[in-house]
Amino acid sequence: MVTFAEIFPNMKKFRFLPIIIAIVFVTGMIAGSYIYKVRDNRIVISPYMSGKSSGIDNIIDYITKNYVDSVSSKELKKYAITGMLKDLDPHSSYITADEFHEINDPLMGSFEGIGITFRIENDTIMVINTIPGGPSEKVGLMGGDRIVKVNDSVIAGNGITNNKAIKLLKGKKGTKVKVTVYRRGVPNLLDFTITRDVIPMYSMDVAFMVNDSIGYIKLNKFSATTGEEFEKGVEKLKKQGMTALILDLRGNPGGFLKSAISVADDFLPADKLIVYTQGKARPRKYAFATSKGIWEKKTLVILIDEGSASASEIVTGAVQDNDRGLVVGRRSFGKGLVQEQIPLPDGSALRLTVARYYTPTGRCIQKPYKKNDFDDYYKEAYERFLDGEVESPDSIHFPDSLKYTTPKGKIVYGGGGIMPDIYVPLPTDSVHTFYNILANKGLIYQFAFDYTDKNRKKLNKFKDFDSFNKNFNMTDAVYDSLVKFAQEKGIKSTPDKIKVSKDKIKTLFKAYVGRNILDEKGFYPIYLPTDTTFKRAVKAIEDRELYQK
């Protein structure tokens, strides 16, 4: 599981970069290209030249037959395509057949596999949780199990990686895989034969009531199922009395354009413009809200940061430009390019930028990039942490040429992400230095993971969040063990600093343990009350004058 970078204050090194670089494409699904046709809702590849091979095919064929050493035509094709794309823009890309399912499955809302969440711990696959109702839970696999063999081949201690583990455990529905596990407290290894099935992948991490009136929903991406998931979450919270909604899109790298439009549609009255797209070979295409909106009139706050991109920015831009709600947080990533994905006959795919998208006021929020050199494009996100932007908006300057005005007269800007209505800097904290060091180095996370593993039997009695939240807290003895653990890792501090950080560390520890046994619904309700941006959103909702202004 990934440690949420936004929980670490005073961060000088940019820890979001892997997430930013992996920004997911925005696509309206494939709707026309020079190299394929749509027939009966199926994509049919058409040759570039009828009855003839292309020049590239001839060159690849010539090299494979005549080069001094053996070369793979498959690899040559990959190099040829990536070479054509690498200087176009930062988001056009080639997906090999081997990478296809790994990259696309998360956006489809499901995959075929055994249904577990895991992490690699001490060169072993450690099961964190089984998916409820999934094939692993059905056969008796449990959180805390270590998978040491797959189909009688020993994998523990053999340099197993996340990608290798996924390839071993995923597979077509109906196929079987045998796993052998070590379970703490059981003297012998246990064998399980698991029949793979379709496993849902949720884009909504959590939906819960913050108090009697404020609801909170966090989306981690915009997949094929996001619109449906989101509406179910809203309806659930409305039944619990929600009159104000906080939608958290921080760290959400985007996904399907259609899903972004669906979510934005739930906030806007019929006929309001959500987004439009346009490219050289793509005529301008508008998306307007319908009458289906389930949250059109009540209070809305959206949270964003430098990890919010693409589809996240479409939803945020639609809300901001229509004066529909409040945007709180830090400046978003700035991706305004639209990709279409074209499947190729060998199972690979091409993602090509075919258009730009524009928010309702007409702004394109794509940040600048230089052709032939995209290093600065990705370094820009890193630079925000170095130039002080994340601690203060003073260094952010938008040219007047990119100024736009909303219907109610609010000034917004294009050309570099979406600037929130209320900017919340990353906290600078010189008091809780012991907490900051442990959080930044992931030591609280590691200690909580080890604690959960050693005490799983006792923790499994908590079947729901209310029971866990009421009856579990970090004791002073466990806190002292964490301090000792940190010291063994080379962390030195003074007794006063250790004492002043105690409450914050206890809260984060409890949140991590809650996640380990109850997934995200055990984490966010505990952690969020300590989150500066979240607290600012709650304050804005409760201050009606501020919200309206």
Describe the structure.
- This protein is α+β, with helices and mostly antiparallel strands.
- Among the domains are: 110-200, PDZ domain (Pdz3 Domain), CATH 2.30.42; 204-337 and 357-366 and 388-427, Alpha-Beta Complex (2-enoyl-CoA Hydratase, Chain A, domain 1); 429-535, no CATH class.
- Strands 5, 6, 7, 8, 9 and 10 form a six-stranded antiparallel sheet that branches.
- Helix 2 packs across helix 3, helix 7 (226-239) runs parallel beside helix 8 (257-265) and helix 12 (443-454) crosses helix 17 (502-518).
- Mean pLDDT is 88; it is low at 1-25 and 27-51.
Structural class: alpha+beta
Q: What's the N-to-C terminus distance?
A: 40 Å
CATH architecture level-2 label of the domain at 204-337 and 357-366 and 388-427: Alpha-Beta Complex
Count every beta strand, where a strand is a DSSP E run of 2 or more residues. 23
Question: How confident is the prediction overall: mean pLDDT?
Answer: 88
What is the CATH level 1 assignment of the domain at 204-337 and 357-366 and 388-427? Answer: Alpha Beta
What is the count of helical runs?
20
How large, in whole angstroms, is the Cα Rg? Answer: 25 Å
Percentage of residues in helical conformation? 25-40%
CATH superfamily of the domain at 204-337 and 357-366 and 388-427: 2-enoyl-CoA Hydratase, Chain A, domain 1
| Molecular shape | globular
Might you state the CATH topology name of the domain at 204-337 and 357-366 and 388-427?
Answer: 2-enoyl-CoA Hydratase, Chain A, domain 1
Biggest sheet statistics: 6 strands, antiparallel
Unreliable segments of 5+ consecutive residues? 1-25, 27-51
Strand composition percent = 15-25%
